[in-house]
Each structure stands twice: as structure tokens, then as C-alpha cells.
Design a protein that fits this description.
The chain is mostly helical and about 260 residues long. The protein has one domain (about 1-245). The chain has helices at about 1-25, 30-70, 75-90, 95-120, 155-170, 185-210, 215-240, 240-245; strands at about 140-145, 145-150.
């Protein structure tokens, strides 16, 4: 039941869109179609990504105020919770927005990945096509006439790993920058940041090589679009949070008895 719904809502529409793009692009270049559909889907998901980034940034901006409320109402969890919710309302922040965004994006990105993984474009699966989907007259598995998208490629795998590193570096220096907290939380954030920046690119490179050129092109494209998206988000939300930073202002010392 779940797999059927997944196929109807995500897998089949993405496959049909990709086939239609192959029919449209010059020479039926599957590699170019992969690039285009990856960009299109990232653009469709951009509002959700912006929402998640705003929430993440907002939570960091409000951290000092939340810490202040914890100290102010130490031992009174109910009062602390009420004032924290009031703070979120004042700052127009939904702390669960980023979680919802992840749940929206995951099935779309998984469907995109699985289409590239399981549908060899040497043979078009007409059983999945809609009546309005054009069938390509020519299909080229050679990306720009240079690299096969159906076979393994060291070049594309290395590029996938490097672009993943670049994306992680950009994200960790921007909206995903870890909070300068000490103790276990700070150590955890540091470890996660190191893994995201150095371990994950290696994993992406291995996956890109073992699964073939189409997956590698997908990762390269989504990483580069991710970098541009991060820069766009960073510029767009900087001014939006000036007012919130005023709301989050915390006195240097708590008054006695609070």
C-alpha cells in the first residue's frame, strides 16, 4: 500500500518528467535531462528549504533568550514552557517547521535517486508512462558526448565528492554554522560538522562510483544547486532576523531573585 502510494505520488511523476526531458533535449542526452530535472526539483523544494533555514537560524538567534528563560524559571518547567512558547510566537517561529520540511523533501529526493538508480534509459519503461508523456526518438547515454551515464566514472565520482565537500563547507559557514556551545552538545555539534564536511563527501564519492554516472551527475548537480541555495538563503534571511535579534537580547546578568 505504502509503496503503491509512493510510486503514484513521487516515483512515476519524476520518471515521466525525466523521460519527457530526454525527448526534448537535443540528442536525447540523458545526462542533460538528469541535470535539468534535478534543478527543477530543487527549485520546487526551495520554499521548504527556505522555511527550514529560517527556523534553524531563528532557533540559533533565540538561543540566548531561551537560556535566559531556563535560568529565570529554574525549577518551574510550566512557567518556562509558557514563556518559551510566547517567545516563539513573538518571533513568529514554528520550532517544528524544519522537521516538517525534512518529511516533505525526503520522499521526493528518494524517488529522484531511485529513478536514476533503477531505470536504465537504454530501454524506456513504457508501462510507467502517462498518455501525455512523449517517447524519446533518440536516447544518448553519453553526457555531452564525453562520459557515459550508464557506467562507472572516476571523474564524476571525484567531482561528486568534491562538490559535496564544497556544499558542506558553505553550509557550515552559513545557516548551518554550529552554535559555540560548550560541553557535550558543543562536542556533538563539532563531531557532526566534521563528519558532514569530511566523511560524507567520501561516502558520496563511493556511492557515485559504484552506482554509475547518472547518480554521480545527480549528486554533482544537487550539490552545486545546494551551494547557490545556501548563498541565496543566507542573503535573504539576514535582514529578516535583525528584528528577531533585538527580541532575543538578553541582559548581561540576571536580576537577583529571578
Amino acid at each position: 500500500m505504502i509503496s503503491t502510494l509512493f510510486n503514484i505520488a513521487f516515483y512515476n511523476p519524476i520518471y515521466n518528467a525525466l523521460v519527457a526531458l530526454v525527448a526534448i533535449v537535443p540528442g536525447g542526452d540523458v545526462g542533460i535531462a538528469v541535470v535539468l530535472i534535478t534543478i527543477l526539483i530543487r527549485l520546487v523544494l526551495l520554499p521548504f528549504s527556505l522555511s527550514a533555514a529560517r527556523t534553524q537560524r531563528a532557533m540559533k538567534v533565540l538561543e540566548p533568550k531561551i537560556k535566559h528563560l531556563k535560568e529565570k524559571h529554574k525549577g518551574n518547567k510550566e512557567k518556562e514552557a509558557l514563556e518559551t512558547l510566547a517567545l516563539y510566537k513573538e518571533a513568529r517561529v514554528n520550532p517544528f517547521a524544519s522537521i516538517l520540511t525534512v518529511f516533505i523533501q525526503i520522499p521526493v529526493l528518494l524517488a529522484l535517486y531511485w529513478v536514476f538508480l533503477y531505470e536504465p534509459f537504454s530501454v524506456i519503461n513504457t508501462n510507467l508512462l502517462y498518455a501525455i508523456t512523449p517517447i524519446p526518438q533518440v536516447v544518448s547515454l553519453s553526457f555531452l558526448g564525453l562520459i557515459s551515464v550508464s557506467s562507472k566514472s572516476y571523474i564524476l565520482a571525484v567531482l561528486a565528492g568534491l562538490t559535496q565537500f564544497f556544499q558542506a563547507h558553505t553550509a557550515l559557514s552559513g545557516t548551518m554554522k554550529p552554535s559555540p556551545s560548550k560541553g557535550m552538545q558543543g562536542d556533538f555539534q563539532k563531531i557532526m560538522g566534521m563528519q558532514l564536511k569530511f566523511v560524507f563527501p567520501f561516502i558520496i564519492g563511493i556511492i557515485s562510483y559504484t552506482t554509475g554516472g547518472a547518480i554521480a551527475i545527480y549528486f554533482i548537480t544537487t550539490n552545486l544547486v545546494g551551494v547557490l541555495q545556501e548563498l541565496h538563503v543566507r542573503r535573504k534571511i539576514n535582514e529578516e532576523f535583525r528584528e528577531m535579534e533585538d527580541i532575543a537580547g538578553v541582559p548581561d546578568a540576571l536580576p537577583k531573585g529571578m
